[in-house]
Amino acid sequence: MISYLDAGESHGNSLCAIIDGIPAGLEIDESFINHLLCLRQSGYGRGGRQKIEKDKIEILSGVRFGKTIGSPITLKIKNNDYENWQDIMAPFATYTNRKQITKPRPGHVDLAGYLKYNRNDLRDCLERSSARQTAIRVAVGAICELCLKEAGVEFYNFVSAIGKVKANVNYANLDEIKNSANNELFCPDKNALYEMKKTIDKAIENSDSLGGVAEVLISGAVAGIGSYKWDKKLDARLALATMSVQAIKAVSIGDGIENAFKYSSEVQDEIYYDFNSKEYRRYTNRLGGIEGGISNGENIVIKAFMKPIPTTRKGLRSIDVKTKETSVSVYERSDVCATSAASVVVRAAVAYEILNAYLEKFGGDCMSEFKRNVENYKEYLKTK
Ligand SMILES: Cc1cc2nc3c(=O)[nH]c(=O)nc-3n(C[C@H](O)[C@H](O)[C@H](O)COP(=O)(O)O)c2cc1C
Ligand SMILES: C=C(O[C@@H]1CC(C(=O)O)=C[C@@H](OP(=O)(O)O)[C@H]1O)C(=O)O
């Protein structure tokens, strides 16, 4: 089993994570981690902060000669913006002429955090809850992906809706889905992409913001990971991972949400046997590759529903917690839409869960043991 702890304030010195339990002997491709970090920073509708940050991974422990050695891996990403915030973000800062934040922003943790932690400056709450944290999470997920790649599991992230504009996604065309990473919103449907950009432009014009649907497709996962037990169910664990991403307010496995409004004959995935590959396959994949908490060998599809970005130029009614006077929440800068970035984050969040489910089933102090056990199991499946 792997676990990790991450830390770091949005405008603090840096973001860090320590991951424990990655098998020894895994080759760490830094360029792959940096590629995903770069993808997370991109996307049409992102704000000014992304012009300041140039996320790059630094590995401080757990790797020698490019390979993991079985000890905890320490990761760090520098916050370039810290330079502009040291007067209030350095741990022992003593003087600032900047005002404290006293007007909680609706849709953010500000008010709940203020009440829970008994802070005077709402910045103490918003710094940690900020989605800046998702950068280090992507780095952790990238390492999990590198491990799973060796077992034949691949991850794809894309966007299938921005506001009311929905894409037409062909889930069987993995090349098209993969290539969507090259366009400004990671949308596999070119017509929808154009409309999505227009709707974001409209949000900018109206000083408003948008959410959307971020999806992750996982190919090559064997049938049999997860469990019947409630807290080991794969769909439940993927839902937890996905819902823990900032602004994701609903999740479905496959067509989970639409399926609730249909007849059973329009939903269940009928079974056939493929004599060539010696695999049990489905004619459709509306349930997204998981039945009864266990993967069934089809692609695993996760849809994450993101609310519109809460901070807008327009501002929203709030109160000043010091004076209790009605006021409008403060705007400094913000993303207008970050659904494409969220798709990279969800990909990382679920990669962590899938790796844990794999390690539970196949063990793995070292990569050779892990890969041998996966290959033996794949051979066994062909005999069933
Ligand atoms: C990649 C990403 C970028 C985000 N950027 C912003 C932003 O620029 N401004 C903002 O107000 N919220 C942004 N959010 C959303 C907030 O972090 C989130 O809504 C807030 O922390 C409250 O958490 P909750 O929506 O999960 O309740 C972003 C979320 C993600 C995933
Ligand atoms: C820094 C990132 O996202 C931030 C997430 C965020 C929020 O409230 O979640 C608010 C904004 O922070 P700032 O006010 O510093 O611009 C975003 O830029 C990032 O994704 O790297």
UniProtKB/TrEMBL annotation:
NADP(+) binds at R40, R46. Transmembrane segments: none annotated. Pfam families: Chorismate_synt (PF01264). SUPFAM superfamilies: Chorismate synthase, AroC. The keyword Lyase applies. Gene3D superfamilies: Chorismate synthase AroC (3.60.150.10). The keyword Endoplasmic reticulum does not apply. One of its GO terms (molecular function) is chorismate synthase activity. Pathway: Metabolic intermediate biosynthesis; chorismate biosynthesis; chorismate from D-erythrose 4-phosphate and phosphoenolpyruvate: step 7/7. Belongs to the chorismate synthase family. This reaction introduces a second double bond into the aromatic ring system. This is Chorismate synthase. It comes from Desulfurella amilsii. The lineage of its organism: Bacteria, Pseudomonadati, Campylobacterota, Desulfurellia, Desulfurellales.
